[in-house]
Amino acid sequence: MMRIALLGFGSVGRGIARAILAKGLDITVTGLADSRSGIIDAGGVDLAAALARKEQGGPCGNPGVSPMDVVEKAEYDILVEVTPTDVETAEPALGHIRGALRRGKHVVTSNKGPIALAYPELRALAEANGVLLKYEATVCGAIPLIHAMQEGIAGNTITRICGVFNGTCNYILTRMAAEGLTYEQALAEARDLGYAEADPTYDVEGIDAGIKLVILANTILHMETTLDDVERTGINLLSPEALQLAEDQDCTIRLIGEIIPEAGVLRVSPRIVPKVHPLVVEGTLNAVTVEADLAGDLTFVGKGAGSTETASAVIGDLLYIQSRHVQGS
Amino acid sequence: MMRIALLGFGSVGRGIARAILAKGLDITVTGLADSRSGIIDAGGVDLAAALARKEQGGPCGNPGVSPMDVVEKAEYDILVEVTPTDVETAEPALGHIRGALRRGKHVVTSNKGPIALAYPELRALAEANGVLLKYEATVCGAIPLIHAMQEGIAGNTITRICGVFNGTCNYILTRMAAEGLTYEQALAEARDLGYAEADPTYDVEGIDAGIKLVILANTILHMETTLDDVERTGINLLSPEALQLAEDQDCTIRLIGEIIPEAGVLRVSPRIVPKVHPLVVEGTLNAVTVEADLAGDLTFVGKGAGSTETASAVIGDLLYIQSRHVQGS
C-alpha cells in the first residue's frame, strides 16, 4: 500500500483521483488540497466524495486546511504536486516540494515551474534526504520520454532532441493547413474546443515549449539553462500564405523545439518540414525525436496533454517509486 | 564496477564489446565465449585483443573453454546471452540462461528463443534466485519498448499493440513501392546490403515478427502463446501491382504485427495503410503503436536491428540492473 498526499484538484488532480478509483490501485490518499481547502485523514480521504463536492462547485475539503498543512502534517510516502504552473516563481509548488523533500518524502510532480527553475537544488535536497523526485508528466504528457532517456537508453550519449512539444500550437497549425484558416480563426477554434487558454501567449509564443526544453536540458542533458537561453519564435505571426507555400512543396509548418547540447543551442521556432517527416503529427499530438550515439534516432509520438494522459505519467512515476522504495510493497 | 560474462561474439557481442571500450563503461568482462572458444579471467578479459583476434578470423579465446564453462565457472554479476536465436529449441541459449539464473546471476539477453519459448519458467527461476532477467534487445532493437511498457506506462492496461516489427520486410516493401521493383528484385537488393539472410524465410514469412509478438504477449500482456498461435501471412507473394493499387489511394503496404489481448488475437500480415499513418516508416526502421487505457496511443519509431543498436538495448538493461542490484554500485 502506498500513501500519497495530493496537492492540486483541478483537471490533473481529479484525473489522478479518477484513475486511482477506476483502476482500484492500492493507493491511499492521506492528504488532499486545492488552493482553497484541504483534508488530512490518515485513514484515507474518500476520493469519490471529494470529486463529487468539487464537481458541484464546492471545495475539495476543509477551508481551514492549506496545502502547506498537508505537506507538513499529513502522513504519506509520496507527495503528488499537480497545482498550476507558475513559470516566473514556481510558487507555491516549489515550497510544497521543498517541504516534502525535507520531511524525507518522495515527490512526483506535473508542475513545470519547480523543475525548470530549481531542479539542481531540488535534486540535491532529494538525494540528501534519500528520496526520489520524479517529473515525467512535465514534458509531453503521456509519452514516457524522460523514462526512456533516463532508463531505456541509459548508457547512450544524447546528441540532439527535436520535437513538437506544444499540442495547442500543433492543433492551430494543423487546422490552418487543412482548412486554409487564418491564425486567428484557428486559435478561436482551439479556444472553443478547450485546447487554448483565454490568454494564449504561453502556448503560441513558444514559452511552454521553451520551458520543456529547459527541463530536458537541465535534467537529462546536464546543462544549466533558463527560459532566457531559449531562442524563441512563436506561431502568432504565421500567415495562411506561408502554410500554402509549404504545402506546394509537399511540406507543412510545425513549431519545433530543438536542443543541441554540444552547441549549447535551445531553440523554438516554426519550421518547414516535409509532410512525411516523423515529427509531422496531427492535431494536439506531441512528437519527439531523440538522437543518441548507440540507439540512433528514436521518435516518440503521443498525447501531450489531457487529465487522463497526465495521470498516466504521474501513476507511472508513483509505481516506479513504489517498486524501489516504498516500505511493505 | 559491474562484472559480466558475455556469450556470443558475433555482430551483437562485438557491438557490445566495442561500446564498452568506446564509452569507457565501468564494466569488466570476466568471461567471454563464442561457439568455438572461450576465456575466463577474473581480472578482466582484454576486449580489444579479443576483438582483434576475431576480426582476423580467429577464435575469441581458448578452444578448451565452452560457453557452459563460462556460465558455470566464471565470476560475474550478469550473464549477457547474445548467441544466435534458435526458435525451435531455444538452445543452447536456454541452457546458458538456466545455468546462470540457478547460480543466482542476473541475465540480459538479445536472444528471442528462450524468451519466446520459456519465459514463465525463466522468470520463476529468476525470482526464486532473487535476480533479474531482462530482454529489451529481443524486440525492436534500439527502441526501449519493453522498458516503456513495463515502467514508463506502468499502471496502464494495454489494449492493443500494433507495429512494423521486421526491418528486412519493411526495406523490401519500401523499395518495391519506391522503385516498382518485384519482390525478388527487392529481396536481392536487401541481400546485397546485408539486410536479408541467404535463406530469407525467417523474415519474409513473418516468423521473426511473430516471435516478437509472442514475446510481447507472454511477457507484457500476461498471455500464454506460442508461434503456432500467430495467424501469419508473409510478404513473399506480394506483387508490384498490389503496391501500385495501394499507391493509387495514397496508401502503401506494410507487414503489420498486431496483438489484441482481449480477443486473444496475434496476427502478422501485409496491410494497406495510409501513407501518413504513423506506422508507415521507411527502410529498415521499426515502428510500434501501443494503445493504453490512460496514456492513449503511443508510437515508438527507431532502428530495429544492427549491432550498435542492439548493444544500446543490452547496455540499457545492464545499467538498469546495476542501478538496482549490483553490489557496490
From TrEMBL, chains A, B:
Q: What does the record give as its pathway?
A: Amino-acid biosynthesis; L-threonine biosynthesis; L-threonine from L-aspartate: step 3/5; Amino-acid biosynthesis; L-methionine biosynthesis via de novo pathway; L-homoserine from L-aspartate: step 3/3
Q: Name one GO biological process term.
A: methionine biosynthetic process
The record's section on PROSITE patterns has:
HOMOSER_DHGENASE (PS01042)
Q: Which residues form the Aspartate/homoserine dehydrogenase NAD-binding domain?
A: 8-135
Instruction: State where NADPH binds.
Output: 112
The protein's UniProt keywords, in alphabetical order, are: Amino-acid biosynthesis, Methionine biosynthesis, NADP, Oxidoreductase, Threonine biosynthesis
User: Where L-homoserine is bound, by residue?
Assistant: 197
- Annotated NADP(+) binding lies at 8-13
**Active site, UniProt feature:** 212 (proton donor)
Query: For the Homoserine dehydrogenase catalytic domain, which residue ranges apply?
Result: 144-319
Query: Keyword Nucleotide-binding on this protein?
Result: no
**One GO MF term:** NADP binding
Name the enzyme's class. Answer: oxidoreductase
- Can the keyword Oxidoreductase be found in this entry's annotation? yes
Q: Which EC number(s) does UniProt give?
A: 1.1.1.3
* Cross-referenced NCBIfam families: PRK06270.1, PRK06349.1
Family per record: Belongs to the homoserine dehydrogenase family.
Q: What is this protein called?
A: Homoserine dehydrogenase
What is the organism field in this record?
Methanoculleus bourgensis (strain ATCC 43281 / DSM 3045 / OCM 15 / MS2)
